[in-house]
């Protein structure tokens, strides 16, 4: 499991993320603003309140948390099987 080690808020609902393995990059979350639980982010000041949770996830109070592995995939452009090799060896059954 990857962990976010540092987060910096950027304009336009973007975040600069550093991960515990040295990978860093930017994720654009603007497409989620206003949808479902992400309605909270309509207020840019609420978006700015992002923190790193105890498992390396991103959290906004007790209302929103984003998985660090999903963020890692978004930053790197990798597929799940690239960071979880066991998925590559798993046969699909119909």
What is the CATH-assigned architecture?
A: 2-Layer Sandwich
As a percent range, the share of helical residues equals 10-25%
> Major β-sheet, in short?
3 strands, antiparallel
Q: Which fold name fills CATH's third level, the topology?
A: NE0471 N-terminal domain-like
Number of strands: 6
Verbal overview:
With 94 residues, the protein is an alpha+beta fold. Helices cover 18% and strands 28% of the residues. It has helices spanning 44-47, 68-76, 80-83; strands at residues 4-10, 14-19, 24-28, 51-52, 58-60, 64-66. The strands form two sheets. The chain has a three-stranded antiparallel sheet with strand order 1-2-3, covered by helices on one side. The longest helix has 9 residues, at 68-76. It is globular. The model has no long low-confidence stretch (mean pLDDT 92).
Outline the fold blueprint.
Blueprint: E1 4-10, E2 14-19, E3 24-28, H1 44-47, E4 51-52, E5 58-60, E6 64-66, H2 68-76, H3 80-83
Antiparallel strand pairs: 1-2, 2-3, 4-5, 5-6
Produce a short descriptive summary.
It is built from 3 helices and 6 strands. The chain is of the alpha+beta class.
Attribute tags:
single chain; 94 residues; alpha+beta; NE0471 N-terminal domain-like; 3-stranded antiparallel beta sheet; 3 helices; 18% helix; globular
